[in-house]
């Protein structure tokens, strides 16, 4: 079982990989659809950062 630090690192790596893939896919989308991708990424990244912040506070 992973400790909280390892879990946070794995979550960050997974999120980074997913974000890169979604941004790379923008070229295949019409420009007007980019906003929805950016909005979704912003929500996801905010959620991950919040979870990582809570994890860091809980491990003190």
Short characterization:
It is built from 2 helices and no strands.
Element layout with pairings:
Blueprint: H1 4-24, H2 34-58
Helix pairs in contact: 1-2
Computed Rg: 14 Å
Mean pLDDT: 88
Counting structural domains, the number is 1
Helix content: over 70%
Description:
The protein is mainly alpha-helical and 60 residues long. It has one domain (4-58). It has helices at 4-24, 34-58. α1 (4-24) packs antiparallel against α2. The two termini are 19 Å apart. The model has no long low-confidence stretch (mean pLDDT 88).
Keywords:
mainly alpha, 2 helices, 60 residues, 77% helix, elongated
């Amino acid at each position: 079982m992973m400790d909280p630090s390892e879990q946070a690192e794995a979550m960050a790596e997974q999120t980074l990989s997913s974000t890169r893939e979604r941004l790379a896919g923008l070229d295949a989308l019409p420009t007007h659809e980019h906003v929805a991708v950016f909005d979704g990424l912003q929500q996801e990244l905010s959620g991950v950062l919040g979870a990582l912040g809570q994890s860091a506070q809980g491990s003190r």
